[in-house]
Amino acid sequence: MTTTGTEIPGPAGLPLLGSMLDLKRDSLGTYLHAQREHGDVVRITAGPPGLRVEIYGVFSAEGAQQVLATESANFRKDNPFYEEVRQSFGNGLLTSQDTDYLRQRRLVQPLFTRRRVDGYAASITDETSAMLATWRNAPDATVDVAAETTRLTLRAVARILFGVDVESAVDVVQRSFPIIGEYTLTRGYSPANFPRSWPTPANRRATAAMDELYAECDRIIEKRRADGDAAMGEDLLTLLTHAESDEDTPLDASEVRDQVLVFLLAGHETTATSLAFALHLLARHPEEQTRAREEVVRVLADGRVPGAADLDALPYLTKVLKEAMRLYPAGPVVGRQAVAASEIDGHTIPAGATVVVAPWVTHRHPRYWDEPERFDPERFTPEREKARPRYAWFPFGGGPRACIGQHFSMLESVLALAMILQEYELEAVDVEVPVSTGITLRAAGPARCVLRPVGRGTGPA
Ligand code: HEM
Predict the structure, then answer these.
(1) Distance, C-alpha 138 to centroid of its chain
(2) Which residue of 82, 232, 275, 375 is surrounded by the most CB atoms within 10 Å?
(3) Atom of ligand 1 nearest to the CA of 274
(4) What's the rounded Cα separation, in Å, for the pair 325 and 359?
(5) Helices assigned H by DSSP within 391-433
(6) Residue 262 in contact with residue 89, Cβ under 8 Å?
(7) Could you report the per-residue pLDDT of 153-178, keeping only the tens digit for each?
């Protein structure tokens, strides 16, 4: 029998607040429990009467596919969370919709072809070498891989975007992003907010951070335009400024800025999370770490620096990253708004509903994964991948709005991982690393690892 709206099962929560406090305290745990106790489609209510929101969680692989891919036109990015991201980080590719979106994607897609992205490999390996050089002097030979990978991925994406102007941009992003991110998130999940224009302390602080960030991007963009074509390099900003297609007008200065902001937002903490947890998981699993290093040593003879062409020859590293992204998907929950009613897994989700699909939950669904909490890169052999439904694993989303940075991120992570394993053996100091869900999933505490130089690399003897 089909259930509809309020008949759809879900946690009862508190009489007045529903599941509001649970979601605030531990949103991922709340969704996971809801699936375990109530099934693949659940209804969760949150907030006091009058401001109450209903969230429909869709947790089967087939349901996720329906929301993100086969019925994507019915599930739009109109929810309050994306609205706040749009207001903080602009109307770029992540947040725009309809004709705006289609035009932007046509203009930006050519900058993310595999060939183009492979051209960024040298920037990634240079930045990784610079990071490894600092590791040689790490106090107590210990590093926090969460902090280190965040710095690395920010530097890499900023360098790819801005070329020579990387230093000042990195400083500004490091200062402003945490403030804007926290503010956006708090607003995105509050049942009601003061208008952004009111001079509250939170609004003022966030506005100052946004002004600084926008001004820095505008300054670099303006400088490029003033320098003219001759001074332009091959960085992404130059390509964005020149992006063209037969049917579209080119991006104007503020549209270029919006894309830059989205790449900074979507392109660094996400990859940092995957890479940090891949390293930390290997640091806790010596056998898998040895196997990964053996592959690296075999493929990169004499400790040479890897390049994009090596990616296909490092399948075990790719499996390690996929497994790290299964357990720690950087976008653990993806939200949409239903336009019309839709039937999913035998339940009718009403028109106007807030719908979430959750890699965090589907990636732990016992129907697709044995012992879901166990780290096992062998889950990603081609045969086993083929035997699972397409959306049992979807850290990059799916359908027409799937991540444009997927190859970039895999390339960056595999290259960095290979270079780290060439030089160091890692052993975890912090065995359990808690996570927090901001705009993306992050390590909520340090993920410290002790470094032991290995074999040949260029590390200390
Ligand atoms: C491990 C790394 C990454 C993960 C897990 C990830 C995850 C995601 C997910 C889940 C979405 C879909 C969001 C939705 O449907 O609401 C998405 C979209 C997007 N991502 Fe990523 N991402 C990663 C890296 C990157 C990088 C490196 C970039 C850029 C340099 C990037 C740029 C984008 C953009 C622009 C979109 C919007 C695409 C569109 O709507 O057309 N991401 N990402």
Answers:
(1) 28
(2) 275
(3) 1
(4) 9
(5) 406-423
(6) yes
(7) 999 998 888 887 788 888 899 899 88
State the residue range of the domain holding 41: 1-89+332-387
Instruction: Kindly report, residue by residue over 224-267, the tens digit of the pLDDT.
Output: 777 766 555 678 888 888 887 778 888 888 889 999 998 888 88
Task: Tell me, yes or no, whether 410 lies in a domain.
Answer: no
- Give the total number of structural domains in the chain: 1
The residue to mutate among 71, 270, 271, having the most atoms of ligand 1 within 8 angstroms of its beta carbon, is 270
Q: Is residue 325 part of a domain?
A: no
Q: How far is the CA of 401 from the centre of ligand 1 (A)?
A: 9
Vertex 229, ends 223 and 235: CA angle to 5°?
70
Task: Please give the number of the atom of ligand 1 that sits closest to the Cα of 82.
Answer: 16
Q: Is residue 54 part of a domain?
A: yes
Residue 96 alpha carbon, nearest atom of ligand 1: 40
**Cα(288) to centroid of ligand 1, in Å?**
28
Q: pTM for the complete prediction?
A: 0.94
Backbone angles phi, psi at 347, to 5 degrees: -125, 145
25: domain CATH number is: 1.10.630.10
69 within a domain of the structure (yes/no)? yes
